[in-house]
Structure formats: structure tokens, C-alpha cells
């Protein structure tokens, strides 16, 4: 148990340092592997997938993730109820890890959550599908799927 707590504290410290280096206003920036490790070691932590319903259905889902669209499908408009839906699903004192396709929408969600009182708000770098490679393809460079973490198809 001591090793897990030390590992957890080390991951959180790295995430905080990363956020500082990147000048991010929220608690930290996590790799997908770090987010998964924290989800395993912090029972109240939640992964919030902010992709669209279409992405969850057609690209894949992370088991037990809280799904709240940052942009609505169809149409791609900002979800005006995002914070209200977050507040209904995740306690404000819980560590919350936001993930999207590549880390851009989840960055915005992390900022919004921090501003709404979620002090333990983190972005998952690389998101679900990761950055594009030299051939303009995702799922080859980084991200949740490339890391081999749990997910399932629609």
C-alpha cells in the first residue's frame, strides 16, 4: 500500500510539474498511462470523456468513463450544459481526468472545470486517439489506444 501511495504522489507531482511547464491553469497534465494508474489507485477519481456521442459510438469507449460532450453532436456546438452535467456526475472534490480525441477539447474542459471549482482537474495528454503521424493518421503516435489501455468498440 505504501508503494502505491508513493507512486500516486509521484505521478501527481509529475503531472503538476508538466502543467507548470506548459503554463496550464489546472492541477496537472497526465499521460494516458498515468491517468490509468491513478484511476486504479484513487477510488474517487473519475475519467470524463468529453468526445461526442458519435465518437463514443463509432470510434470507441473507455469502460466506466463518465461521458459528457464538450461539443454536441450533431452540429459541433459548445455544450451549454457541460458544467451542470459534470456537477451531476462528479463531485467537485474528486480528482477528475478529462480526455477527448487528442487533448484539445479536454484541455478546454479542464480549464472550465477548474474555473467551476474542480481544484483537482487534469487533462489527459494525447487523448483517446493521439496526435497525427507523418501520414496524417491517428492511433499510431500516442494516446489511450496506442498505450494499450482498456477500451471497447461502440
Structure description:
- This protein is of the alpha/beta class.
- It has a single domain, classed as Rhodanese-like domain (Oxidized Rhodanese, domain 1), CATH 3.40.250.
- It is 36% helix and 11% strand.
- The protein has 5 helices and 5 strands; from the N terminus they run αβαβαβαβαβ.
- It has a 5-stranded parallel β-sheet with strand order 1-5-4-2-3.
- α3 links the parallel β2 and β3.
- The longest helix is centred in the first third of the chain and has 20 residues, at 2-21.
- The model has no long low-confidence stretch (mean pLDDT 95).
Summary?
The chain has 5 helices and 5 strands, in the order αβαβαβαβαβ. It is of the alpha/beta class.
Mean pLDDT: 95
User: pLDDT below 50 for ≥5 consecutive residues: which ranges?
Assistant: none
**Which term fits the overall shape?**
globular
Could you give the distance between the termini? 35 Å
Number of strands: 5
CATH C-level label: Alpha Beta
Q: Helices and strands: which structural class?
A: alpha/beta
Q: CATH H level: which superfamily? A: Rhodanese-like domain
Amino acid at each position: 500500500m505504501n508503494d502505491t501511495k508513493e507512486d500516486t504522489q509521484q505521478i501527481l507531482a509529475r503531472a503538476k510539474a508538466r502543467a507548470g511547464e506548459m503554463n496550464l491553469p489546472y492541477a496537472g497534465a497526465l499521460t494516458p498511462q498515468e491517468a490509468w494508474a491513478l484511476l486504479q489507485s484513487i477510488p474517487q477519481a473519475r475519467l470524463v470523456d468529453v468526445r461526442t456521442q458519435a465518437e463514443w459510438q463509432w470510434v470507441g469507449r473507455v469502460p466506466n468513463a463518465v461521458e459528457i460532450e464538450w461539443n454536441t453532436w450533431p452540429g459541433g456546438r459548445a455544450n451549454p450544459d457541460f458544467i451542470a452535467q459534470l456537477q451531476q456526475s462528479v463531485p467537485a472534490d474528486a480528482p477528475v481526468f478529462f480526455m477527448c480525441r487528442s487533448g484539445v477539447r479536454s484541455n478546454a474542459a479542464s480549464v472550465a472545470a477548474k474555473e467551476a471549482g474542480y481544484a483537482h482537474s487534469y487533462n489527459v495528454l494525447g487523448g483517446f486517439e493521439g496526435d497525427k503521424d507523418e501520414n496524417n493518421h491517428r492511433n499510431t503516435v500516442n494516446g489511450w489506444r496506442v498505450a494499450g489501455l482498456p477500451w471497447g468498440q461502440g
